[in-house]
Write a structure and sequence with these properties.
Elements: H1 2-9, E1 26-30, H2 36-48, E2 52-54, H3 65-75, E3 80-87, E4 91-98, E5 106-115, H4 117-120, E6 130-136, H5 139-142, H6 144-157, E7 167-179, E8 182-193, H7 198-208, E9 213-218, E10 222-231, E11 239-242, H8 249-280
Parallel strand pairs: 1-2, 1-3, 6-7
Antiparallel strand pairs: 3-4, 4-5, 5-10, 7-8, 8-9, 8-10, 10-11
Length: 293
């Protein structure tokens, strides 16, 4: 009985033949009016995704953004899309979703804390086109809406095995961490350091059990995604999730303007009260003021 149970629990190890079977492509584009920082971020993302399809700046016209993006994705035979829109030249929003025959779901994020590769000047470096290891913290297994977002991130950022533009190496890690109700995205290089002498090899083997020491060095880019809403369809449809903690940047700016306006009103009121007090403060005439003149 024990032998039969061991045979049932034993799973044959999967051996990849390296063929290109998962032929999914991701359309990466932005709306016209994006600032230089977000355009550079988009170029960095394209560098990390060998399975991307590039498209020029989108000018949707009267048809609307959703219709235009879906049509372009159908023409380019893309199964997923990463779309960036910039409002008022300061607020950036990122759309990630599935398009085509199995359209949906799609998610909209507020993009903040953007730092590009050139801006950071980090020491990490990896082979262009290498496949990443996608890591998610425990929140993506616990919260329902993060489970759905995890599948979207795997579709968009995960490079298919055997893609012609990819390299058969895994030397970088993309980390997705859920902190403060936001998703923090980081990109690291897996650095394996060879010991230079026997002493270093002995110490490394004593600490980690192997002579080679493995460490992580950040490459970039880095950005933070604040989930706003998840839709059942592509760029619309039934709402599956809505973030109750999200505050629009317009509301934040309005509150800041109101606070500054209130301070201005208080300052003017105090100036007016001081002027009135000075006018009302009259020193009574001294009857002995002219005695010694």
């Amino acid at each position: 009985n024990m032998a039969s149970s061991d045979e049932e629990n034993h799973v044959e190890e999967f051996v990849s033949d390296g063929r290109y079977r998962n032929k999914q492509r991701c359309l990466v584009l932005c709306l016209r009016g994006a600032t230089a920082r977000y355009r550079h971020l988009l170029e960095d993302i394209r560098t990390l995704m060998p399975h991307h399809k590039k498209e020029s700046k989108l000018d949707p016209g009267k048809a609307g953004v959703a219709r235009a993006v879906n049509d372009i994705a159908q023409i380019r035979s893309c199964s997923s899309v990463l779309f960036l829109e910039c409002r008022k030249r300061q607020d950036a929003y990122m759309w990630i979703g599935r398009v085509g025959e199995n359209a949906g779901p799609s998610a909209r994020f507020h993009l903040t804390n953007v730092h590009t590769m050139d801006e950071l000047r980090l020491t990490g470096n990896c082979m262009k086109g290498s496949r990443p290891v996608l890591t998610f913290d425990e929140s993506f297994e616990r919260l329902n809406h993060l489970k759905l977002l995890k599948e979207l991130f795997v579709d968009v950022f995960g490079t298919p095995r055997g893609h012609p533009a990819s390299k058969p190496f895994v030397d970088r890690v993309m980390a997705f961490c859920y902190v403060d109700n936001k998703i923090w995205v980081r990109n690291y290089q897996v650095l394996e350091k060879q010991p230079e002498n026997a002493m270093e090899a002995h110490l490394a083997k004593k600490e980690s059990g192997q002579e080679e020491s493995t460490s992580m060095v950040e490459i970039g880019p880095r950005f933070v995604l604040d989930p706003i809403r998840i839709f059942r369809g592509s760029f619309g449809g039934q709402t599956l999730f809505q973030n109750p903690n999200f505050v629009s940047p317009n509301e934040t700016r309005a509150m800041e303007y109101k606070r500054k306006n209130n301070s201005y009103i208080h300052r003017k009121d105090s100036q007016k009260r001081r002027k009135t007090r000075e006018e009302e403060l009259v020193v009574p005439e001294d009857p002995l003021a002219t005695v010694f003149r």
